[in-house]
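Protocol step 4 of 6.
Sequence for ATPase (Fervidicoccus fontis) entered exactly as in the expression construct, tag removed. Do not edit the line below.
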Amino acid sequence: MKPVVLISGLLPYDSGKTSLALSMMRKGKESGIKLSPFKPVSAHSIFTQLHSFEESEKRGYLIGNDALEYEKEAGLKRERTLFANPVDLLLSPLDPPTKTSEEALGDYMEGMENQLLMAALMRFTSCVKGETHHYLFEENMKRFPKNFRKRIESFAESVRAEKIELRDALNFLGSRRADEELDSCLEIAIENGDGVIAESFSDSLYPYSGIIRKVSSLVIVAPGKAYVYLNAENVRRAVLSPALSSKAPRSIYFLSHLKPDYEEELELGDPLKENSFPIGMIIGKV
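Step 5 output, structure tokens:
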């Protein structure tokens, strides 16, 4: 069975998951190992990643910067990029308040920490049917700055996005059907390389529950450090243990529950550029 390395982030954002994944892919190439990227669920902001939104407008489907980086590094065809990143969410910052009272500003700051309030659009690509659909979360549109809203609505119209409620999208993403769809995408990634580097979402230990059955090793990353788990059975037992199964699947809970096999210091920029990171051992090739 080909190895599937899961990279999870300790922090809600900016843990360095994508940077480490890309660095591992480059390190693998040096050893003659082709690692396929797989990022089942991603999210990006129209404000901080305007360039990827503009690329989305050109391509006619939603795509974020991480998927574009994986596409470039792995030399993926565009269709394969969608299979490597089947679910993508577009976020927008909230409209700053016109009233600048402490209460109004406090509500605004709190809202800016809630990605559910900032969710505008979702792309879902089915690896089973080979179809891509877009969905607009109309309930959130009134929360966004006017000029941002116009741009999003124009794109949504161009891709014929269906208007749905956010809770329906969340229910689907947590369903068995979604697990089966994402597993189909993972199988494509497995078939097209010597192994897979799978990236989780935010600070969740895993991007969808079914992937835990396929994982061969786990790396939890934070700025400057990687916590490495080489025994997949230990990882699965810990995930299913009473101590963790009753909690949200956050990396912080897992890391505090199960000691990693070892820790690795990471470089600034390209995490593994000047590093003796044992890529072969992690993907089970030595």
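Step 6, annotate. The radius of gyration is 19 Å.
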